[in-house]
Amino acid sequence: MGLAGTADKWRGAAGHLWLTARALFLLAVLFGLTAAARADGLLGATGYKMAGDATRIRIVMTFDREPDVKWFLLRGPNRLVVDLPRTRFALDAKDVKPRGLVRAVRFGDQGQGSRLILTGKGPFAVDKLDVLKNDDGGYRIAIDMSAASEREFDEALANQSLTTGSTVSADKGGRVGTGPISAPGHRFTVVIDPGHGGVDGGAESAGGTVEKNVTLAFATELRGKLAAVGKYDVYMTRENDVYLTLDDRVRIARQHEADLLVSIHADTIAVKGLRGATVYTLSDKASDPEAQALADRENLSDQFAGMKIEDDNKEVTDILIDLIRRETHGFSMSFAHTLVGQLSTSVGLINNPQRSAGFKVLKAPDVPSVLVELGYLSNSKDEAQLLSADWRGKAAQSITNAVALFAAAKAGARAGG
């Protein structure tokens, strides 16, 4: 072996020793923190994780022993406050970075005790807050939160005296509604979702027409026509050129207790000569390859802003939510059928215009939802129509007529029930 080989061997041995020393140092630090927490009588918070999105999220905080937990809600802004015994927080800064439904995370000492404060992106429901024992002997707090309306948050505040301090969750039947049925006095509510926005421009025509601008112009026209009826509350997920994640769009619909979500799009397609409008609903299996391809493209929207996409839909397995989804799907299909009928009188439709695929933006379990593909920017005739104020007015009026029929049918079903 030459001198170079000997040097490499010594470098390898030195690197191994350095890694071993570093691992021992980190273990010593962790042991020291735990020992210090126990020595001064403080509860030790040793870890924090969040998983989910803007519609539903789970927070888990781990402890070295069982914590005595009290919790309550505050508004202005909407917050969940978790009171703990005096706690030493040994948490990684990157783990407590807010995400999804949680807009801000704060924690610290309050003198007589410690506190964790979770601020939501608007109103939310605390579906569960449990203290559980870990296999390694420690404990954890598991918190499940989901997007809710202001009315639901206010009801939770009003009932707070019955639940404050309890770590036993309410029965799921009391936490989740029995379908897309709103509060007494609630006006039929439509949320219009102009597809794409901000850094996500969506499709673009050969002439430079960008989908995000087409969808916003049409959504604004539709909002005006629906508002003019005077019977509906109408909201838009965005009113200007901003980026929204797909789950933020669903969150906004749920927080407004929407009776209907209409997502507006104008895609491109490689099939030569294909043109016309299409109405899509949600399904696990796409109705055709073109619908699947479109859903795949739209579901990639979050990647435009560098978002990490995580498919965390374990709640779908919950039987009650599954039943709600079925009822919601029935309403969605009913509206889609009505909408196709109305659009056929004013705008051109593709063959088999009522289609389905797994669009993420349509996945609110309790909001009937459709995605309207107004036409294809890859077709010059469709592009000309999409840029025409007269055509937009006719198409928006057809959707308004369909909403009127759907709202009347739902009101009649409730009265009959």
From TrEMBL:
Enzyme class label: hydrolase
Protein name: N-acetylmuramoyl-L-alanine amidase
Pfam families hit by this protein: Amidase_3, AMIN
Keywords associated with the record: Hydrolase
Residue stretches making up the MurNAc-LAA domain: 250-404
Matching InterPro entries: AMIN_dom, MurNAc-LAA_cat, N-acetylmuramoyl_amidase_3
EC number: 3.5.1.28
Reactions performed catalytically: Hydrolyzes the link between N-acetylmuramoyl residues and L-amino acid residues in certain cell-wall glycopeptides
Species the sequence originates in: Mesorhizobium captivum
Upper classification of the organism: Bacteria, Pseudomonadati, Pseudomonadota, Alphaproteobacteria, Hyphomicrobiales
